[in-house]
Design a protein that fits this description.
This protein has two domains: 180 residues, P-loop containing nucleotide triphosphate hydrolases (Rossmann fold), CATH 3.40.50; 68 residues, Orthogonal Bundle (Arc Repressor Mutant, subunit A). The radius of gyration is 23 Å and the shape is globular. A hairpin with a 7-residue loop joins strand 6 and strand 7. It is an alpha/beta fold. Helix 12 crosses helix 13. The chain has 15 helices and seven strands.
Length: 347
């Protein structure tokens, strides 16, 4: 969909919007950890439901670290050969070329760079990366690798295993990965990649309602009370904040059309995909939640004819996926705006 001229909101996935609500505490935690003299962790994993802002958060982290002295940021496509892509992108960094040339690192065997006279071509990509990073370490350089939408693919497993070796060699390489809960969990469950279990995980929480309210009030010139009602409609869901703002800007004189477009856009671009990826059991549980007034767990279990032990795995999994919340004891509620309506219509 084309952007409206001057519209400060975006409905494009992954693109850093003009108007956004920063997650200051989470961002500070990650940046402070990576830039510490003795980093507490070299890996951060960012998870959340589709549209929760994982890509935008990772992009903001990369942008922040680009401002730090001696950091190089490399964003990798998980559908390609990650190790060769990493070597190629590092080699193409203008500020690093001199370091690699002085270290006589010959990558011509991989089709990267040119032959270096008197330097034997490196034949193994892991050896090449270790030598490249070791040469950067001598110049106090650090590398951040960013991978969006990681999953348990063969290429990702090969990369993660190699990255683990680079870490054991104390090389200056850091990693941010984003992914859906189930994809990250599947990758962590690989018996050779247990180091990922120890990596700090940032589960993106709903955006701050107060900051969204201030944003809507400033942009649309409405009273705080009106802006607060708008913010509440999003339930703090990052994509909903953008979509509601986008269509309010576009159809500000037609509130009914704003609601219709808002609901339809969420369903077509996010909810249908989430629904398709759920098991039949998850769908039945969500329908029971959607049709139970007040979200009382006891009433939901009774409707499903489930014991507490039978219901708990569903509850836990749906919370981790970011679809429901269980903050109040004995009650569950939907985290996503209008998702209860979608469930009733599609179950």
């Amino acid at each position: 969909m084309q952007e409206n001229t001057g519209n400060p909101f975006t409905v494009d996935f992954g693109r850093e919007p003009q108007e956004m609500i920063p997650r200051t505490r989470m961002m500070r935690e990650l940046i402070d950890s990576f830039t510490a003299e003795q980093p507490a962790s070299h890996v951060y994993i960012v998870t959340g439901v589709r549209g929760s802002g994982k890509t935008v958060f990772m992009t903001a982290a990369c942008k922040a670290l680009r401002q730090e002295k001696d950091w190089t940021i490399v964003e990798l496509n998980p559908e390609r050969d990650l190790l060769q892509s990493l070597a190629a992108k590092l080699h193409e960094e203008k500020k690093l070329k001199g370091i690699f040339r002085a270290a006589r690192i010959n990558l011509a065997g991989f089709g990267i760079g040119v032959q270096i006279e008197g330097a034997e071509p490196i034949r193994d990509i892991e050896v090449a990366l270790a030598r490249m990073l070791a040469s950067l370490q001598k110049h106090q350089k650090k590398v951040l690798i960013a991978i969006d939408e990681a999953s348990n693919s063969p290429g990702m497993r090969v990369f993660a295993s190699a990255y683990q070796i680079l870490l054991r060699q104390n090389l200056p390489v850091f990693l941010i990965m984003t992914g859906l809960y189930e994809n990250i969990r599947s990758l962590q469950n690989e018996k050779t990649l247990t180091f990922l279990y120890r990596a700090p995980r940032i589960a993106l929480e709903p955006l701050n309602i107060g900051r969204m309210t201030d944003s809507y009030a400033r942009i649309f010139g409405v009273e705080q009370k009106v802006a607060l009602e708008m913010a509440k409609k999003t339930k703090g869901y990052s994509f909903a904040f953008q979509v509601l703002g986008y269509f309010t800007w576009k159809y500000r004189k037609d509130p009914h059309r704003v609601h219709v477009e808002y609901k339809q856009y969420l369903e077509e671009y996010v909810y249908e995909k989430i629904w398709a990826e759920l098991s039949d059991g998850d769908r039945k549980v969500l329908y029971a939640i959607a049709t139970t007034e007040g979200g009382m767990v006891s009433a939901i279990r009774e409707k499903l004819s489930m014991t507490s032990n039978q219901f708990t795995p569903y509850r836990t999994r749906l919370i981790r996926k970011g679809i429901i919340s269980g903050e109040t004891y004995g009650i569950v509620k939907f985290e996503l705006p209008l998702f209860d309506e979608f469930v009733k219509e599609n179950a």
